[in-house]
Amino acid sequence: MAPQLGIVLVFFFWPALQAIEQAFYVEDAFGLSREFAGLANFEAVLSDATYYQALGTTLVFSLAVALGAMSIALLLAVMADRVIRGARVYRTLLVWPYAVAPAVAGVLWLFLFDPTLGLISSLLGNVGIDWDHKLNGAQALALVIMASVWKQMSYNFVFFLAALQALPKSLLEAAAIDRAGPWRRFWTIIFPLLSPTSFFLLVMNSVYAFFETFGTIDTVTSGGPGGATTTLVYKVYQDGFVGQDMGSSAAQSVLLMALVGGLTWFQFRYVERKVQY
Amino acid sequence: MATLRLNGIHKRYPNGITALHGIDLSVADGELIVVVGPSGCGKSTLLRTVAGLESISDGELMINEQRVNALEPAERDIAMVFQNYALYPHMSVFDNMAYALKNRGTPKDEIRRRVTDTARLLDLAELLDRRPRHLSGGQRQRVAMGRAIVREPQVFLFDEPLSNLDAKLRVQMRLEIRRLQKRLGITSVYVTHDQVEAMTLADRLVVMNGGHVEQCGTPMMLYAQPATRFVASFLGSPAMNFLPVTAHRDGVVLPNGVEVALPDMLSEGRAATLGIRPEHLVEATSMADAAAVLDVTVEMLEPLGADTLAYTRLPGLEEWLVVRLDGAHAAREGQRLSLAFAVAHCHVFDSQGARVPLAEPETQACQ
Ligand SMILES: Nc1ncnc2c1ncn2[C@@H]1O[C@H](COP(=O)(O)OP(=O)(O)OP(=O)(O)O)[C@@H](O)[C@H]1O
Ligand SMILES: [Mg+2]
């Protein structure tokens, strides 16, 4: 127990405490001195229009990533479940996108969608879609969503597949005898029985979309064009490490933590009780 | 109103195991057939092929003389009670029972009426709003029954429906199933490995072994005239005693030289097995025309209340000879007993395990 606790303390709580402390100070341009600023950092953040733009982007992005990654994974898991019946080999093969580092996956997507060289952008050009995520904000957002969905899908897939394989076979057989066709069986038996897994994944995917998509966004669009793909966590990075405004960055991360904390609390409070049977 | 007929049903699983080697069986309308046999003999496979959950490799399955081999489970109009009940855990008892009716598009008020009627029949009326995990084992079992009954199917299939219940509840539910099945008159196939359940429920009993039907007929017929040594050993508790014998001019002779007078039926010198049920061994003093008298020593006693089982040994034989004595019998361990049995209670099996008829009418076929 002690080593894990140590790791959590060093790598999570310590930086978190640092961030909270930092949020109440302003630093000079060289980081040599700082003074207590009360809530000034928070006021500055909350009166900044780009912060609200980032918040909006984050909500659209997170919702799309969580829903996209979960529904595609579920579809694939259902199809795989029919074929494999517990063969572990395939299961591990299907996890590989998750094992690819976010930056590498991001580069892959960059290549495919490069406006001049990319395979997919040239295919899209053939059907009349002018792809240029370097100029078009909506396309840029779509691209980071796709890349993030791709990245998270395999994680969801593994959980959905495991849950599907753990469903008692006799329940589905009973439903088949009870005259439920495959479609109805899915919606009235399988889907409700997967709900604990879906709930767990919803929480995990929200956290992923809020925090862990940083690497993907950085490689694919660097938050652009015009801040169209700047999510809250990316803005924390930009303002803090690029803009060197540590106080604002810290205040934003505190707000972000509060937001995700609140969201997770909401999910447990209102969604979880619906998924128990 | 339905009849069920199996013509030479074979089932080969994709992994190469052949679980059914040509099953012939016909079930009359309203009849309750019990399929019994040891673990792995193919009972569940048989039910599952009838239900349509497993494909039929070879042979014909007829419901009401219509070939249904190619029909989906949903189209066969059968209901099945699973060993683990397979209740939908996220639905209330009501919804569990209503599910099949909803899938069929039955009007709402008819669903309500039928579910409430069935619930009343099974004493479930109070439980309709509960989820399965808030029910006891016996209640779950009744819900599983209710779910099958409410559909009014052509054929009922039961796969060891009572094996997860304790002994007392099992007896109670056994009677309940019998009562409901007769009252509703639904053609049923009931699988169990419990021979008491099999004997008490069945209109006709099918004994399976290794993917074959060993014998089928009324419980009493199978008990009185087992066609094979396997059937003889499977039905009856405690099991029939088997003694190695050699055919002889006037019957058979035990290894220790005791002669048993039987009608002439095997050529002299052939090895055979003599079977006698524990309840057919009685004290020699109370029998006039015994086939033979055996002098045994009581080695162990098992008082069961109404009866006492005596495990005895015959000098010169390795096998135990189990005797069912009256509970009031004053037998002691180490005591000597003289046991006699009648010719009518002797079962002789040849070296392949087939019954050697002692001039009695032969058993009926399964078709
Ligand atoms: N899905 C399957 N794939 C391959 N072989 C199977 C399958 N199901 C059953 N078998 C095999 O078929 C044979 C019959 O199995 P079955 O389940 O019908 O036995 P059973 O009589 O119901 O046994 P029990 O009393 O233990 O339930 C067994 O040898 C079993 O291993
Ligand atoms: Mg079985």
From TrEMBL, chain B:
Pfam families: ABC_tran (PF00005), OB_MalK (PF17912). Transmembrane segments: none annotated. This is Sn-glycerol-3-phosphate import ATP-binding protein UgpC. The lineage of its organism: Bacteria, Pseudomonadati, Pseudomonadota, Gammaproteobacteria, Oceanospirillales. It comes from Chromohalobacter beijerinckii. It comes from the Bacteria. Keywords: ATP-binding, Cell inner membrane, Cell membrane, Membrane, Nucleotide-binding, Sugar transport, Translocase, Transport. The keyword Nucleotide-binding applies. GO terms for molecular function: ATP binding. SUPFAM superfamilies: MOP-like, P-loop containing nucleoside triphosphate hydrolases. SMART domains: AAA. Residues 4-235 form the ABC transporter domain.
